Amino acid sequence: ELPKRPTSILFTADSKTILVSDKFGDVFSYNFDFTPLTEKQKKDALSSHENPSGGTLILGHASLLNAFLLSRDEKYIITADRDEHIRVSWYPQGYNVEMYCLGHTKFVSAIHNPAFAPAELVSGGGDPALKIWDWMTGTVKHDIPVWDAVEPYIRVRNTKRKRGDDGEDAPETKRKGRGKKAKGKGKAKAEQDPADGEETLVTETPENVADTSAAPTTSNVAGTEGEKVLVIRKIETTTSRHIIFSAVGATALFSVDYPGDGAVGNIRAFEFAQPVLDFVVIPQDNLVWVTLDGNWTDDTEPGIKSFVHVLEVSGSGELTKSTSSQIIESLNSKALLPGSYHTPLSTSALLLTSNNYPATAEDLKKLELYNDLVAMPKGNDADNDQEGDGAAPEPEKQNKKILGRLKNKQKVLEKEQALASTAPTTDDAKEPNAKKPRSEVGDDNGQDVEMGDA
């Protein structure tokens, strides 16, 4: 039993230990050969929550932890969170922080340590570029712009979030006067239109496709604005020194030459016409297995639905479709069930959709395939509010704490003005006296000398 919802899981090289990160920003380790606890474990003084399965706390972040990995020698653990931080810590002594890789301006959702360059790290998230780091020194070696190449393929959108709705368990309906999230500008917007507070994913169709020349763009769908959000889902590399990556809600898989000491090359895309859910690189064969959302539809004429594709990576980094095999044909035919073609499906749901284990709409909904489009961005702040004027909220719309501070300042100012009006007026007190430090001017007693009128 895990204490909180996991965000990432990996095995150590000896397959004896499982590392799990969760939404509270903690990383725990568990023995693969699990021994049930005889008594309930008490909350650790350093943990943010209880751990019913006896996991060992490795480290913790102050925000949601999106991705982590172990260095090739397993001496370090590299973690990335929603607050733009990449941290390099010792493993398993995670309380010893070796280095920070700081440079992202938005959340970091994917990191990768290439086998051919173990001293480097590739990272991506909400920024319009991937970054390549020397992770032991925390310096950026290369930036790879990706937004212009990825943006035309993003077909699943989300509506703008109300400012402050960043919580994991935040309700979809607006709040009325309770908590900090119900105050300020977000509350005012919610009172004008309750629909503005809802988090909704929008599928892009030919009727609502907007101009894709600028980033990010929005379009109107049934009266709801949908914004294209960049969330890098996964990054991997091939033995031929090419970076393969995907984005949440995008219908293509992308490749680019690993820059090394040279210039950044062009980004290549392989279009599937269905959103990419996940992929894995088979290095020895230069193959990429890709899973798709086979039940996704854009309301166009239905084509052949498929869940799995295999691509070949050429020496130049081009992605081409591999020859079909019996196992691929079996996955793409037996994984489909009548009546489920309009419900998202992920790799983990392939087994659920067999004849023995039919998946219900409620089962598939719980998979939250595109939830990162809503959960990763921090809301309608000044950075991602494309339509806001950036102005501060009206004084009457500010919260009570700010209003209280303003009132206190106003009272202090009024008191100072009252004291100034009752003080005697002399020629020497017409203007504020300027005082200098004792080191510059002063009498023998160490008293400051007041500067008179010229």
Topology:
Layout (H helix, E strand, L loop, with lengths): L5 E6 L5 E6 L3 E6 L24 E5 L4 E6 L5 E6 L4 E5 L6 E5 L6 E5 L7 E6 L3 E6 L4 E7 L1 H4 L5 E3 L25 H9 L8 E3 L14 E4 L2 E4 L4 E6 L4 E6 L4 E6 L10 E4 L4 E7 L4 E6 L15 E6 L5 E3 L4 H9 L26 H5 L6 H4 L24 H23 L32
Short description:
By secondary structure, the chain is α+β, with helices and mostly antiparallel strands.
Commentary on this structure:
- It is built from 6 helices and 24 strands.
- The relative contact order is 0.08.
- A hairpin with a 5-residue loop joins strand 23 (308-313) and strand 24 (319-321).
- The protein has a 4-stranded antiparallel β-sheet, with no helix packed on it. A 4-stranded antiparallel β-sheet has the order 5-6-7-8, with no helix packed on it. The protein has a 4-stranded antiparallel β-sheet with strand order 9-10-11-12.
- The protein has 454 residues and is of the alpha+beta class.
- The chain is globular, with a radius of gyration of 28 Å.
- The protein starts with 5 loop residues before the first strand and ends in a 32-residue tail after the last helix.
Give the terminus-to-terminus CA distance.
Answer: 81 Å
* Count of DSSP strands: 24
User: What is the molecular shape?
Assistant: globular
* Percentage beta strand: 25-35%
Structural class: alpha+beta
Helix share of residues? 10-25%
Radius of gyration equals: 28 Å
Mean pLDDT: 74
SSE order, one letter for each helix or strand: EEEEEEEEEEEEHEHEEEEEEEEEEEHHHH
Largest sheet: 4 strands, antiparallel
Q: How many helices does DSSP assign?
A: 6
Pick out the low-confidence regions. Answer: 162-198, 209-224, 337-357, 380-398, 428-437, 439-444
Strands ordered across the widest β-sheet: 1-2-3-4
